[in-house]
Structures are given as structure tokens and as C-alpha cells.
Fold this sequence. Notes:
This protein is an alpha+beta fold. Helices cover 48% and strands 23% of the residues. A hairpin with a 2-residue loop joins strand 7 (253-256) and strand 8 (259-262).
Amino acid sequence: MRMEDVRDGGQEHAGGNRGLANGRFSRRLDSVFRAWSANGRQIEKPLKVTFFTFLVVMAAVLIIQNLVTEYRNFQKPIAETAAVAEDLLRQQRLDAKVSLEHALAGILHNSALTAAIASQSRNALAEGLGPVAGELKARHGVAEIVVFDRQLTMLHSTSGPAAAAGPSTLLRLSSRVQRTASGVEYTGDGQLSIAVVRPWLADSQTVGYVQISKTLDKPLAVIGQVLDARVAMIHHLDRVPTGSQAALGSDGWTHAGAFAYQTEGLDGLPSSFAALLEEGLTGLSFLERLNFDDRQLTFAHGLTLPHADDEPAATVVVLQDVTSEFRSFVFRTATLIVTVAFLALIFWLIFSRLIRALQQSIVATRQKLEREVDANTKELEYSKDRLLEAQKIASVGSWERDLVTGEMHWSDEMYHIVGVPLDTECAAARQVLFRQIPPAERPMLEEAMDRAIKTCSDFDYEHQLIRRDGAVRHIHVRGYVLADDKGNATKIFGTSHDITDWHRARQQSQLLAGILEASMNEVYLFDASTFFFEYANTCGRENLGYTMEELMTRAPWDISPQHTESTFRQMLAPLLRGEVGVLNFESVQIRKDGTEYPVDVRLQLYRERNRDLFVAIASDQSERTAREHETRAAKEAAERIAYFDQLTGLANRAACQRDAERLFRPSNTAKPSFIIHMDLDNFKRINDTLGHPAGDYCLEEAGERLRRCCTEIGTAYRWGGDEFVILADGPDADPEELCERANLVMRAPMDFEGNQIWPSVSMGVARCPQDGTDFGTLLVHADLALYRSKDNGKDRWSYFTNDMKVDSDAEARIEKELREAIQRDEIFLVFQPQVNIRTQKVTGVEALVRWRHPTRGVLGPGAFLPVVEKTNLASIVGNIVIDKALQAARAWQDQGRDFGRVAVNLSPSHLFSGNLLNDFHVAMDKHGVEPSLITAEVLESVFLDDARSDNSKVLEELHSLGVHIELDDFGTGYASLSHVADLPINGLKIDRSFTNQVLEDVKKEIVVNQLINLARSLDIGVVCEGVETDAQFDRLRMMGDFSVQGYLIARPMPFEDMSEWLASSPEDLLFVI
Length: 1073
């Protein structure tokens, strides 16, 4: 029943008024149509007029839509050109800035010039800058070099005395912040250029300033070449310095209002270009920027070029030729208009013929229908009485509604279903019906009825009635909509069937069946007397492989090989006697194919009126068992990876340190008599000449030879790269015998793919207890002896002697310089991003420490961190790194940059010092950075010394704060599964030594894949370092979903460049990757 027919009393009056209004309008419309179509018998004329109007409207819509679409297509390449021009201008400025900074670095490191400015000698500056200016102009395009003293007074300019002027914006900025400043400024000769100003330091004191600049001619030429467009730089006259005003008034310059531009070298500018500038380019609309001149249509793009003080200094105008695009726009539009007109004509001719044939068919059909209606009227009257009786028996009420007059009729059974007396008027009865329908169901019912009326189709739906006594009835409504000969809906006929009892029974059955069938456990029902199965759910049937028919001929002991009928009945006897309510036990079930699987069974007795049933719920434990086996296998594989080198088959560094910790305990009286540190001579040459496969073959063969020659004397370990360590087997082993054996065995030639390799080894020997009694000391001394063998010509061995400690002086010097560097704030950070290999989203930024040495330039960590680790500077440098890293993170947060987490490498000495936690707390409170935004990268070596438990405790406290912990250099020989499993580790970093050979070395690829699978099994993250090529990236991408880091993504960069990279990464990253 349509919901418009059943409204409450408050809506009835308003609805009646609307119905009357709609009825009057409908009748008026019908009257017009009947008069126009001769009472519905002549519809040809109305349809033709309607169709013609439709054709005209549709043609107009198509043409307008095409004009809008073509106009947008015409605009699109112009907008893209503007974006490309902006990017090119920004990139050219950045390239020029970098070039000038390189040139500036060369000037500042010139000791003669430093002495000249320190002495304020103009002649010395002029003499020193002469050749330098020529060289920098040739190499970097430097147009001008200006030197100022500390009071910002110019001492010398390569442009001559005429260039002297007051302090520029950049000069004042550099003087104020004592750092490099760069931007766009006018030079002394009136040229707008890119300039860089930097303080000139001598003995850490500012003695002056130097400014270098280069013109914008080359960047603008590059933009013009790339865009194939004409480029002009428009100067804002109010921003041009007084010294440059005269230059802008010379020949070759054109003035337009408040602007001026140089016409020399810009042949072919539109004749109206000056007028375009006078109107103000930035304020013009899209159409106003179009210019037609000499049969060419151009579009003017304006790119603002800001001065160093952030005020606009000039505007770069790019004139784009859009003639061909405009011609295409005109051609396509004209083509569409002609096509639409032609098709409209064709459709009109076809429609005219069809409507004529339709008119004839309608007349014949109408006459036939009128005869049939008269014949059926009497039969309908007779059927009415029989229908009323049938409705009463079946609890089915019928109803109908005239959509034209609004009249409605209900059968007697409809009144019974709604629960109102038979003498109730229809209007009041439908109000009751409407109130009894739940509000949540009313929109659905109205939508179904509206859809049926609009399409003149059938309807079929169910709804609820909530009677006055609170009883809920379920009603099934079916019916159809009758249309007149014009296709308009005129009447609705429907039935309402009370299906409450059937609905409740079906709902309960479906609920129980759904629960049983959807269960992930196996559910069985079997008779308590015969023990034959009567029911098994989907899970049970699929697991056993039997159909329900097959199971009904079987008993539980037929699918449980560990039970017989006797033992099974005996086990269930307590349930039958009522001694227990539930029986739980473990069992094994056998499938139809003979395979077995473990289950946990819960069994209960269900008593019906006529019989008893057992309900058994079995949980398949196969997955749990398989998972336990998989975890055990993964642990064994990881232990193998952690303690054995995959290439040579020898024990690795982690195994060596583990064994050394045991052998060199103070309580051990039978310590090894010596340690040998061995290195393959000229191994890099083998890799460079024959390739890495040859190097791997050489290492593999060397491992096998060492295994043979160390028999009964020592144990060989691969320390890393081409280095090996040998521990003596006991206190009486002879190092000289082992060295003789090793030299003899290793000198034998190796054959690799027809190439003979003549290997040799250099060895260093440290004896115990003469050279030390602990492993660390002996290894250092053996390493010193190894380098003595290298210095003496290789292919030999050397015993450690005390004179090999000369290098300690160099370390002392570095330590002294480091302490001074910390006071001068020469320690700084560069940053390298980490991105997800699948989504390319930035997941982290690693902070890498650098030293800006006053004489040696920028030094990497390898040049000073070994000394830091050996001294008490580890905590100081570590605290500096943490503070600067969190300072950068705070800045990126303030800028709204998504950087994932900032990663900090933890020094083992810093970790052991006891200050690490406090340093993190202080830095986090100082900069307001949450622990969840920090990653602490730690080497596995910190867990291999006596302070392992203390180190683990510190990491656990960091982890509890929310700091992300990653195990660095995993796979190089340090890492152990025990640390991955036992410690609070959130992620692994796979060393670059595996990543950069993942394409050349199948074994390395397998190792990387296994490590990624191991991390996935342990639910921890992975970062692959050293990704440098697209091929490496593609191969790693096939291994899973994790993060990568390397030169392919981005090189380490200063904070400012990292910020720009993060700002552009959502767009640029896809192109990089």
C-alpha cells in the first residue's frame, strides 16, 4: 500500500489540499491533451511538437557542453605550461645558488685572499681576485665579486669603482645572522642577478664579507628553450635602484607604465606587448592575456621574481604560442554543430514515419481493448464475492487506490489485519496503519511504491505493524500499478498478507542454521543410542572430506582412529548418566583421504522429548601446530644466518665474539695462545677486474682452505669482507705453524672461468698473555700487526710489537680537535629519507652526523667516530646528535611536513654511559617531540659484551616510552635471532652489503628475502639500505611491503634541502622512484 495514502491526522488536511491541487492540475492537463489529441485518438501532432522541442533543446545542450569542454581543453596546456615555467624558474635559481656557493667556498679557502681581507689591503684584494674572478666567470658564470669589511664598507668589486653602493639587503642579512644569505638583487652595474653573501672567517673571527653574483640571462634562456617560448624579464621601475635607472633608459629598453623591459634579443614580441604591461599583467583574466598579432595567438604567463627583501623586483613573462590549439578548438566546435544539425534532421524524418505508424496502431488497439473491457466486467463482479471469502481464510487483505481521484477501497480482511472496526472510514483507517508502521521502515516503503508508480510496474515488499496492544505483526505486501493508454499510472492494486507466524519460524531456523554453518569449528550431532551422525556443518564436512550422506552411515569412532566403539561409549558414559555436563578431550581425526589432523573436542548431551542427541564441537589445531613448526624452523634458519657466513660456510663475526667471550673469561685458565687477523691481499683488484662473482668465488675458496689448514690448531671465522679471524685451539697451539700452513695453502692458484687467480694473505698475530689477556685487546693488537704486514709488502705475517702503538698519537690529535669542534659547533647533521617501497610514502628520515673541519672540510663519520667511541666524547656527541635531530623534527612538525619518524644512530658507548635516557628526555621536553616520532637505531654489537643486560634495560625503557627501536646492519654477522626475539625490537635494517648485490649474487638475494620473511613472521618492520638503482628497487619490491633508503631515493642532504624535499615529495617522489 502506498504510504501517501496513510498519514496521521495532522498531515491529513495538508495532504488533502495538496491532493486537490494536484488533481485540478492533472485534470486541466488531461483536458488540454484530450482537446489537442481528439480525446486521445490523434496523438501524432502532440508527439511531433514535443519531439521537435526535445531535439532543439538536446542540440543546444550538446553544443554548449562541447563549447565548455573544448574551452577547458584549450586552457589545460596553458595552465600546465605555467606550472612547468614556475618549476623551471625555481630549479634554475636553486642551481645558480648551489653553483655560487661552490664558487664562494673556493674563494673563502684561499689563504692569500683571507690574509688580504684580514689586513684590509685593497691592492692585495684586487691582485688576488683578478685571476679568481676570471676563473669563476668561466667555470660558474660569476658576473661580479664584491668584498666588504666588517663595517659593511666595500673594499673591492670586480665591476669597478662605479659599482660601489650602500649595504645590500643580503649583506645586512648575512651580517646579522652570521651565515650565508642568498637571493635576487641588483648588482653594482644595474643588472638583476642571483647573489650569495657569506661572512669571511679567519681564526673563527669574522673579518669581512664576500658577495658573488651571476646574471639571470642563462636561466631565462634555458626556460625559453625548454618551453619553446619567448621569455622577457620585466623590471618594476619602483624597485630598480637609483644607479640602475639610467641603464633602463638606454637604447634597447622599452617602458610601459610602471614597467620596463629590454627588447634587444627579443625579436618577434607582439606589437601590443607594451600595452599589455601597462594594464598590469597579474590582474588580467585568462582571455585578456590572449593576444593576436600577425596571424599568431599568444598567451602571456607572468612569473614573479622576488627581491632579496621579499618584495617583487621583476616579472618573468613567458609568451606561449597557442595558435594551433585555438584552431583545433574552432574546428572541433564547428564540426560538432554541423554533425548535430545533420543528425537532428535524420532523427526527425525517422520519427515522423514511426509516429504515423504508431497512430494507426493505437486506434486499432483502443477499439479492441474497449470490447474486452465490456466482456470482462460481468465476470469481475462474480469473482468479487469469492475473493472476499478467500482473503478471510488466508488472512490476506486487498486494497486499491485511484491515483487520479484519490479514492481508496479496503477489503474486510484489511480492517482485521490493521485491527480497526469494519465501519471505520478509510481515511481514519489509513492513519492508524501509518502510525503502526515503524518510522525506520517508512522511507523504504515509500521508495518502493514511488518506483512502482513511476515505472508502472509490480511491487513486492515486507514491513512490520506494531498494534495498539504492542503486538508486532509482519505483513507481506504485493501488487501492481495500472497505467492508462498514455502510459500514466492511474490505479494501484495490492494485497497485504499477515505472515507473522511464518516469519518467526523462518527467522529462528535461519539464525540457528547460520550460526552452525558459519562456525569456524566443526559441529556434529549424533544419536545417543545408535551413535550415527545426523548433522555436520560446513567446516566439519570440508575438513573430513565426506558428504553429509556419507557421514550419516558412520559413527564417531570411524573418524577417530584412536578410539574403538567400546572405548568411545565408555568415555561418554558419564554424560549419559548425568555425572558431568561437559566432556573436553584432545583427539585425532582421519580424513576421507587418510590424512590425520589434531582437534580439541567439547561434547555435551542434548535431551529432546523423544530422544537424546550428542552435540560435539571440534576445533582444528592443524594451523597452531603448523605455526609452531614454522616458528621453530624460522628460528633455526635465522640462527644459521646469524652465526654462519652464507658464502664461505665459516662461522661469522657474531659467532667469533660469542666464542671469544667464553674462551677469554678471566676464570678460564686455558685461554687460546694467540689470535690471528687475516686479510686477502689485493682483493679489491679481483672484484674490479673479474667482477664480484670472482671475488665471491675467491672468498668461498679461501674459507674452504682455511678450514683445512686450521685443523687441530685453530678455528677460522669470517670477520667481514675479505677479513678472517683465527682463534687458537688451546694454550699450546703454535701460531707460526698455522701461519706457515696458511701462507702455503693460500698461495695455490685458483681457477675462475678460465682465469687464474694467485691469492695471498697478510696476517697479524697477537699472543696471549704476552700481548693481552682479553679478546678486545688481542684483536686490536692483531689488527695492528696485520697492517704492519701490509706495509711490509703483504703475503706475510707479523707478530705484534709495542712500537705498533704509534697510531695512538694520531687518535689523541683527533680527540683534541674534536673537543674544539664541539665548542665551535662544527658537528652538524645531514638527513636521508626512507620511503615505503609500495606506497612511496615517507616513513622516516635518518639523521647522519658530519664534522665541518676547519682545514679538512666536511668529514664523514668514519673519520672520527672510531675515536669518539674510544673516548668519553661518545655521550657528548650523541647528545648533540639527539638534540639536533629532534630540533629538525620539531621544525618539520611546525611546517606541516610528514616525515614519519626521525632516526638517530645510538653509539654503543653512549648507550653504556647511563646518560642516554636522560638525554632523550631533555631533548623531547625541549623541542616538544613525541617518542612515537623517534627511531633509535642500535648495532647488535652492544649486546655482545658484559654490559648486555644494562644495555637491554636501557632499550626496554626507551621502548616503553614509545621510541621505535631498530636493529642496524642486520645480516652482516652481528645479528642474532635471540636478540630479535628477546629484545624490544620494532624493526631491522638490512645492510647495504646485501642490497647492492641482490641482483648479482643469488645467495645474497636469498638472504635478503629470508630476512624480510623472518621480519614478517615476527611482525616487525624492515628497512633496506643502499638502494641505488631502479633494478635493485624493482627486485626488492617483489619481496614484500617495507621501507627502502639509498641514493635512488635521495642522497644525504642538509636540513634546508631536506625540508624542501619533504615539501615536494608527494609529487616528485613518484618521478624519483
